[in-house]
Amino acid sequence: MLADITIQNFAIVKSLELEFSKGMTAITGETGAGKSISIDALGLCLGDRADANMVRPGEKRAEISASFTLEQNSAARRWLQDNELEDGDDCILRRVITKEGRSRAYINGNPVPASQQKALGQLLINIHGQHAHQQLLRPEHQITLLDQYAGHQSLLDKMATRYQRWRRTKNELKALIKKKDDIDAQQQLLEYQVGELNELALGEEEYQHIEEEHKRLSNSGDIAMTSQAVVDLLSEGEETNTLSLLTAAQQRLSELAAMDNHFSPLAEMLEEARIQTQETSQEVSSYLDQLDMDPQRLQYLDQRMSTIMSLARKHQVQPDALYETHQQLIQELEKLGHNDEAIEQLQADVDKQFADCLDTAEKLSKSRRRYAKELNKLITQSMHQLSMEHGSFEIQVENKAETHLSPLGGDAVAFLVSTNPGQPLQPLAKVASGGELSRISLAIQVITAQKVETPSLIFDEVDVGISGPTAAIVGKLLRQLGDSTQVMCVTHLPQVAGCGHQQMFVAKDTEKGSTTTRMYPLDYQARISELARLLGGSEITDRTLANAEDLLVAA
């Protein structure tokens, strides 16, 4: 629950420190005194948008700090643990706004985005504003109220997840079908390109081999002449050749080695040279014997190389990369060949996911209808208590998931009401007057608040348009709610204020051209005086004081 709040330089508040208690706290004051300022300031700590106009004129910054106790708020403690912001059983939210409009947010002293403050704030306090009865006319707000009362958040999460998955797959299918014409044209081009390359049937390293063979055949004449010249120089020259010279030299060294061992290694070296020369000559002679000088083979290689280079230019790659390009095009063609299969598979996925959505939407619809019956009874009873003796309330839940699916399911929810005997149930906006709508809204807020796990509730002038005996009943409803939940109620009705377990007064002071708002708790006698002011206006008599005390005693 909210333990205390400190406000510095916010709007017309110079400095304010407030402590809050369990039960129902009534907040009263003169019109324009700033009864809602503390709620606006608290809203900043709960992640509301900050504005430079919120800083008190003449000051550099505004600062608001709110402290909460979390003994009975497991959801908030779990959130703090999950976000590594836990600090015992207490939680402090702080917001700083500069006169330039910059804002900083803190949770337990840790700087955080305002969005995180907002996420945590929803687990700490639920604020019901003075315009809640206007929101009640909006269909989206009606379904939200019903869902809050039903408490089926896990179903809502499941519905949202399945809906998003279905929409995502459906969009993928739509995009794939849209691209089908382009894919068909691309497939035709690939089939033509792959057909050309299939006809070429180029091997993985074939181009390198062809290039080598073509080079050899193109130069076969020169190779033969030069090879023969080498053989002649090495061993077949008639007048002289290397082999005969080496043989003669080796013989002379052998003779010298017989006379001096110093020449033995040299003789051996020359013998090795003679053997290598002989082997080289034999290898070149063997190559000459096998040399192919087939002109038809050369012509074939010319044509094949020309085709390879032409296709390489066409695909803008080097000739030795054409084989890899061929394989890549084959793979692309295979993928495109599975396009129809992909469309069929995606369509099957879409149908399956849509069926899952319908299943969850039906479960959600059943849950809504179940809790709608509970609310129908409770709100109708509350309307009777709030001086609408013949009133009747009904929540209509119609499942339209087949044609109107959304992340919230497929239900069209409508709040119907009848306020007079014999009058049929009709939508709120068509039947209820302003005062009736305020009472129905208050009844719904009080009833649904009992099912919300948030430990603190704020009602900001939700009793507008209510007076007399009805106001007394409203006060009792809020006090009853305060027996189990911390309730703060900004009100101008003495019947409501008198039902508070405690009461705070808001006053506005003007001094030297500067306006300041202050708020302070009232003791028993001060409460009587304030209730008398609310009852009698500026003129307070013994009678109004007695009536004010009767209100406190009755509460």
UniProtKB/TrEMBL annotation:
The keyword ATP-binding applies. Residues 5-214 form the Rad50/SbcC-type AAA domain. Gene3D superfamilies: P-loop containing nucleotide triphosphate hydrolases (3.40.50.300). It comes from the Bacteria. Coiled coil: none annotated. InterPro entries: DNA_recomb/repair_RecN, P-loop_NTPase, Rad50/SbcC_AAA. Keywords: ATP-binding, DNA damage, DNA repair, Nucleotide-binding. It holds the Pfam family AAA_23. May be involved in recombinational repair of damaged DNA. Belongs to the RecN family. PANTHER family: DNA REPAIR PROTEIN RECN. This is DNA repair protein RecN.
